[in-house]
Every structure is written in C-alpha cells, then in structure tokens.
Design goal:
Shape: globular
Strand order of the largest sheet: 1-2
Structural class: mainly alpha
Order of helices and strands: HHHHHHHHHHHHHHHEEHHH
Distance between the termini: 56 Å
Radius of gyration: 21 Å
Strand content: under 5%
Largest sheet: 2 strands, antiparallel
Number of strands: 2
Bound molecules: tryptophan
Length: about 450
C-alpha cells in the first residue's frame, strides 16, 4: 500500500485546520448571530459551547481521522467495518456538500464587494443606497452566479493541486495575511468616535436575553465555526503526521478561531454603533453596514475608506476560501477513496454538484424568494438544517463513537501519540465525550423543540 499523503509540517497542519475553521462563520455569521441574540450574553454561552463541546469533539474527530487514515466517508467503515456507523460518515459528506453550496454563494459576494470597493462603487452613497445595492446584487439572477463560479473554480484548482501543494501551501500564505488585516481593521474600528457603545454591546452581558434559542444558536455557531460535526477536521487529520499532538492542535485551532471571531466583533460592532446602525441586521449585516461605516468614518479621506473596504473584503474572501477548500476536500477525498476516481475527476464532480446547489441557494434569495419551507427560504432552510441540526447530530455521533465504541487503547493512544505525550486532560475528555456532549446536545435539541415546557 502506498504511504498516505500528509501535511509537510505540524505548523502546516495547524494552519490548514485553522484555515478551515476560520471563515465566514467568524466574520459574517458570528457577528450577526451575536447581534440577533443580544450581544455579550450570547458570546458567553458561545464560549462555553466551544470549550465544553467543541474542543473535545474536535479531538475526537482528529482521532477518527488520524487513526483510520481515511476521509470521513470511509473512516467509520475502516474502524468498525460492516456496521451502521458508516452512515455517520456518509451523513458528514452530504452535510459538507450542502454547506459548500450555499457557503460559496456568500463567498462569491465577498468577491463582488472587493470589486465594488476597488472600482469606487461605495463612494457618494446615502445609507439606504447600500441596502438597495446589496439587495439588487444578491437578488440578481446572474451576477452572483458569476462570482459563485469564480469561488468554486479557485477552490477547485487548489484542491486538485493536492494536500501539500494546494491546501497546506495556500493556508500558509492566506492565514498570516488574514491576521494582519484583521488586527489592523479592529484597531481602526475601535478608535472611531462613539465606538464605546459597540464595545459595551460586546462585553456587558444582559442575561435577560438568554432564551433556549440562544443555546441552540450558540451551539450551532460553535459547530459551524469550528468546522465540526461533519468530519471536515477528521478528513484533515487523516493527513496529520504521527507526531502531531492532537490536543495541542485542537487547542490552537480553537483559540485562533475564537480570537478571529471576537476580533471580527471588534471590527463590526464599534464601527456600526459609531454611525448609528443597529447590530441585528442579520446575514446582510456586513454587506450593508460596513461599506457605509467605512465611508462615514473616513468621509474626509476617501482613499482610506477605499483601502479599509478593500482590506475588509479581501479578508473575508481569504477566510472563506480556506474554508471552501476544506469543505470541497471532504467530498473530493470521499469520491477519490471510495470510488477510485482520480482526484481531479472527483473534484470536477464536486465542483459541478456544488454549483447546482449554489445556484439554487442564490436564486432562493431572489427569483425564488417566495418559495419557502416552514417559513424559511431555501437558503435559510439549508443553513438551519445543516448548522443547527446536521452538525450537532454529527458531532454527537463522533463523541459517542469515540467515547463508547472505539477501543480504549486507541482513544488513549491517539491523544498521547502512543505513549510519547502526557495528557492529563484525558479523564475529563472521556467524561465529556461519554456524557456531557451527548446529553448536552440532546437537551438543547429537546429544549428548542419545546418539549421541556
Ligand atoms: N468553519 C468555517 C467557517 O467558520 C466553515 C466550515 C468549513 C465548516 N468547514 C466546515 C462548517 C465544516 C461546518 C462544517 O466559516
């Protein structure tokens, strides 16, 4: 059997996994979920979800991936052949494929906005014009599709280049660039006049706002943001080397991801409050409020406004493309490993399939807006179904699998690199996987469905 490809260095592995985790989930979804759920209290619940459920489940996914040396679609089959557990792997592949479809649409918007920022499309507009601008664009039948295609093609070529030369190399360039841009923008935003109100919104919790919905929202957000619950990181872990420290890698990814989410909040809320914009605009928050914010904040210096807007949308584009790569890789690796397609043929199938889902999601916001399921248009329905149901479910299965099914010597072996590392957190980790995570996830579901009364 030929040796499985792997990341070239441990740093490369961390950056690739962090590249998957850091994305629109941090810069686009986190701020609007925080805005919709009342600010700081949501963030506290979110942090709880990241550290209580997120990190242990991430280590569990790493264990599944590195031990099986297979993508998630084949990992369970490899570890416990002939059982129904393989369906958990398939569920993951399906979930990732669906997310890739609608995620690429939003990723495409970021490219349009880079273009608009560069070509002066934001200058000389009244606040309401940004609303119209966003609506006209996102509801347009064709224009967003062009950018969707661009995102999918970029992703496609990086994935086809392979794990080391495509995924790892691109992450090593894009992630540091992203950190620089985000720190500069946060500083910029916090020094605007009136920024304190935004900081207050982010830092002072109002516990009267904590409803059951906040828990489901925070849990969904934690899974989404950490790329958990569908075997994305488990697929990446199948490319980890023997020496990679799983616990430490999970910790680094968790910290980087949380750091970027909070910094995004520090860019968006102070800036929004500073020009008197409400934080609960929903998914369109960063596309409507921010161009306006930059224009107003730097109204005397149009050049700075332009630089900030370009930087912000470049940041978003970079963050989202390292994530689409990871989503794409899950399906591509699955087709490659399961059906023996070459990687490039597998990638063609994935790219074409996600293009179809992308087109449907994009039209769901425009020409097919009136078509709804349970009151949600198809785009929002896809987001709800994947982030709030399929990911927590997949994460719960991963926890139960590693906590209860997998041989103890393997579970312990993977976190200690078979005796090479100490792992004092091991008992706590197992306890969380066995009890806290499954029970917690079920309770949050039950609560949300109103069964607890
Ligand atoms: N975590 C990414 C973000 O925050 C999105 C993402 C990539 C993802 N891979 C995933 C979400 C797997 C859920 C599952 O934008």
């Amino acid at each position: 059997m030929s040796e499985r490809v792997s990341f070239g260095s441990r740093m490369g592995a961390v950056l690739a996994a962090a590249g998957s985790a850091v994305g629109l989930g941090n810069v686009w979804r986190f701020p609007y979920e925080t805005g919709n759920h009342g600010g700081a209290a949501f963030i506290l619940v979110y942090l709880g979800c990241v550290f209580v459920f997120g990190l242990p489940i991430m280590i569990a996914e790493f264990t599944i991936g590195r031990r099986s040396k297979a993508c998630t679609g084949g990992a369970y089959e490899t570890l416990v052949p002939g059982t129904h557990w393989r369906w958990v792997g398939y569920l993951g592949v399906l979930t990732g494929f669906l997310i890739l479809g609608y995620y690429s649409v939003v990723s495409g918007w970021t490219l349009e906005y880079i273009w608009q920022a560069l070509s002066g499309g934001f200058s000389g507009k009244a606040p309401v014009d940004y609303v119209t601008m966003f609506q006209d664009f996102s509801q347009h039948p064709f224009r967003p599709l062009l950018w969707l295609l661009a995102v999918l093609l970029i992703t496609h070529f990086i994935v086809v280049k392979g794990v080391k030369d495509g995924i790892e190399k691109s992450s090593k360039v894009m992630m540091p660039l992203l950190f620089i841009i985000i720190v500069l923008l946060a500083i910029c935003s916090m020094t605007l006049p009136g920024a304190e109100k935004g900081l207050e919104f982010l830092l002072y919790p109002d516990f009267s706002k904590v409803t059951p919905d906040v828990f489901l929202g925070a849990m969904g957000q934690a899974f989404f943001s950490l790329s958990l619950g569908m075997g994305c990181l488990s697929t990446y872990a199948s490319y980890f080397g023997k020496k990679t420290n799983l616990g430490q890698t999970a910790m680094s990814v968790g910290i980087i991801d949380t750091f970027v989410a909070v910094l995004s909040g520090l860019i968006i809320f102070p800036a929004a409050f500073s020009v008197g914009i409400q934080p609960d605009a929903g998914p369109s928050l960063i596309f409507i409020t921010l161009p306006n914010v930059f224009q107003e904040a730097f109204s005397g210096v149009p050049f700075l406004a332009c630089v900030c807007s370009v930087a912000f949308y470049v940041l978003l584009a970079l963050a989202s493309i390292t994530s689409t790569i990871s989503l794409h890789e899950v399906s591509t690796a699955f087709l490659h490993e399961k059906f023996n397609f070459t990687r490039s043929r597998a990638a063609v199938l994935v790219t074409s399939g996600s293009l179809v889902i992308g087109v449907v999601s994009s039209w769901a916001l425009g020409i097919w807006k009136s078509f709804t399921i349970c009151g949600l248009n198809l785009f929002d329905a896809l987001d709800f179904l994947t982030a709030k149901i399929m990911l927590p479910l997949g994460g719960m299965f991963a926890a139960v699998f590693v906590g209860w099914m997998l041989d103890r010597s393997i579970v312990k072996g993977e976190v200690t690199n078979y005796g090479m590392l100490k792992s004092s957190y091991y008992p706590l980790y197992i306890f969380i996987l066995r009890f806290v995570a499954p029970i917690g996830i079920v309770l949050i579901f039950v609560n949300e469905l109103g069964l607890l009364g």
